[in-house]
Amino acid sequence: MSATAAPDAFLHRLDPDMCVVTAAAGGERAGCLVSFHSQCSLNPVRYVVWLSDVNRTFRVARSAEVLAVHLLARDRYGTAELFGGETGDETDKFRRTGWREGYGGAAVLDDAAAWFVGRVLERTAGGDHVGFVLEPVEWGEREGAGGALLRLADTGAIRPGHPVD
User: Fold this and answer.
1) What is the CATH number that goes with domain 5-145?
2) Smallest Cα–Cα separation from 50: which of 91, 19, 29, 25?
3) SS (H, E, C) 110-152
4) Cβ(114)–Cβ(139) under 8 Å?
5) How far is Cα 24 from Cα 92, in angstroms, rounded to an integer?
6) pLDDT (tens digit per residue) in 92-151
7) Judging by beta carbons within 10 Å of its beta carbon (0-12, 13-18, 19+), is residue 16 exposed, middle or buried?
8) Which residues on neighbouring strands pair with residue 149, listed in sequence order?
9) Interval 22-76: pLDDT, tens
10) What ranges do the domains of the chain cover?
């Protein structure tokens, strides 16, 4: 096996849960569909989300004190399509979906099966994405939102709203 094929042999087997990350700062709101995210500490609890440095959500998140992270059930594909297939440079996504203001002014989506708002503790470069290490400070779930979560394999037909190199 060649060294260049090795990463694909591993990475193509992954099928993470998808989430929508929203940011609010300076009177602006933004949000995008994210597959790079994970709990990164047990005690204290920390979570990291990785945002592409070419999209509007990243530009707003650079100044945000908190981010909201939302898990979507598979029946909320339309929300994933909105936040993954549209760019905030051209579309006000928040006019097209229900949301409320959460801790620190975070935009919390009504469609989320479960969500949390996290205080941004650290930003770290990681290639073409920047990691935002979050301290969860508020969380919740949508009543009756059981069932399977939306996964990367479920979103293959969504064409990214921002440019991809």
Assistant:
1) 2.30.110.10
2) 19
3) CCCCEEEEEEEEEEEEECCEEEEEEEEEEEEECCCCCCCECEH
4) yes
5) 13
6) 999 999 999 999 999 999 999 999 999 999 999 999 999 999 999 999 998 877 789 999
7) middle
8) 73
9) 999 999 999 999 999 999 999 999 999 999 999 999 999 999 999 999 999 999 9
10) 5-145
